[in-house]
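Structure tokens
________________
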Amino acid sequence: MKEDSSRPFLYIKEALDLIIRAIKNSGYQQKIEIGLDCVASQFFKKGNYELDKTIFTREDLLTFYRELVKKYPILSIEDLFLKKIE
């Protein structure tokens, strides 16, 4: 994954925690759900996924996404994995 210095957050959970705090501070926590567009092709390398300085297999990444959905009000996740190239 190419590092983007304009990206202010290194870790997904850190970014989601900040988003949740902002939602709570706004008073709209009962009205807002989060959608993620992961664009997994951006962090797919050599048959695995490299995210937050961690290497994930496809199965490990699915477990990670499930943990996020349990912890945060995530309504949808798009582009979870690399699309099969034919």
